[in-house]
Design brief:
Elements lengths: L2 H45 L3 H6 L3 H13 L5 H13 L12 H8 L4 H14 L3 H9 L2 H6 L6 H8 L14 E2 L11 H10 L1 H8 L3 E12 L2 E11 L4 E8 L5 H16 L9 E6 L4 H8 L6 E7 L5 H8 L4
Parallel strand pairs: 1-6, 4-5, 5-6
Antiparallel strand pairs: 2-3, 3-4
Helix pairs in contact: 1-4, 5-7, 6-9, 10-11
Length: 326
């Protein structure tokens, strides 16, 4: 028996086991989600039965929690029963529930009061295969409001129906970007910022959004007799274009012309025939400011400037900034 053939057998069996376990876990999650929906339905129907509602009043969930825990163990706290009731109320048609999302996913989604926002995060979670931790962060960082910055008023309705569709350069832009995971000190240099991003690349890619893959840092370009370096270069496979990112702590307007230079270089020397024109994003610590606004005027519509934050923003502040009320 050849060692290579035996190792191949072990590998094949391992893949089958992993796939089987994945399907089994998915099946269990699906059953749990469906069961909790049914429990929520039972609670709501019982509450709406008139006499019983008056008889048990607001103490129904407390009584249920006590009895169910005595008979079936953990998992039936008052809060969890409240989520089950809310689950049925928010998703009246059980056929719309996804088998890919666990109960823990739905608990995070149900904490959102606004129906449109809740629909957006559910769709986006499915499209991007977020873990519960990733979903919680995206909700906490107000992703939908940052995507909507500068967009039309009906943008939230479209996002809730279709999720975030990437069709044009501005669709990938957020304002602000949130990098709370970098844990930078109060004072830092652009190099320290770049180093932290590289050390937390997975989280940075999550913040950038769908379709991004890392290409290079300090990408060297020989233009005439001079050498230039783009801070960070990514490729977005959905838009099929390179995305260059320039990090600025101060003087962001001075980087606009430089970014235009970089984009022209990529267009002429890096792009393949199937690639679309590259996109440039200037990330500013202090926000755009009037200088950046004027510097961007008349230049390529593929250059964008966005503020970045090192702490999670207030959702209320983001709602005010985008004109969206809860």
């Amino acid at each position: 028996m050849k060692k290579e053939e035996y190792n191949g057998l072990v590998k094949d069996i391992g893949l089958l086991l992993e796939e089987g376990r994945r399907k089994a876990l998915q099946s269990v999650n699906s059953i749990i989600v469906q069961t909790y929906w049914e429990i929520g339905r039972k609670i709501v129907e019982f509450e709406q039965s008139g006499e019983d509602k008056a008889k048990y009043g607001s103490g129904l969930l407390e009584m249920l929690s006590k009895n169910l825990r005595q008979k079936y163990g953990k998992g039936f706290s008052v809060d969890n029963l409240e989520y089950m009731r809310r689950f049925y109320t928010a998703f009246k048609n059980s056929e719309t529930l996804s088998r890919k999302l666990s109960w823990s996913h739905y608990v995070e989604i149900l904490a959102i009061n606004d129906n449109l926002e809740r629909a957006f995060y559910e769709k986006q979670c499915l499209e991007e295969n977020w873990s519960v931790r990733e979903l919680k962060r995206q909700i906490g960082s107000g992703l939908i409001h940052r995507i909507l910055a500068g967009k039309k008023q009906n943008g939230i309705l479209l996002l809730s129906q279709k999720g975030q569709a990437l069709r044009k350069p501005e669709d990938i832009i957020k304002d602000p970007y949130v990098f709370e995971f970098l844990k930078l000190p109060p004072s830092y240099s652009e190099k320290q910022l770049e180093d932290k991003i590289i050390n937390n690349l997975q989280m940075f890619l999550l913040e950038l959004g769908k379709g991004f893959s890392f290409v290079a840092r300090q990408y060297r370009m020989q233009i005439g007799r001079k050498q230039f370096y783009a801070d960070l270069v990514f490729y977005n496979k959905i838009l099929r274009c390179y995305v260059l990112i320039d990090l600025k702590i101060k003087g962001g307007y001075s980087g606009v012309g430089q970014m235009n230079l970089y984009l022209n270089y990529f267009k002429s020397h890096v792009n393949l025939k199937e690639d679309n024109e590259p996109i440039g994003i200037i990330l500013l610590k202090e926000g755009k400011g009037i200088e950046v606004k004027y510097a961007l005027g008349g230049l390529s519509s593929r250059i964008f400037a966005s503020k970045y934050m090192l702490n999670l923003p207030s959702i209320e502040d983001l709602r005010k900034a985008t004109g969206i009320n809860a």
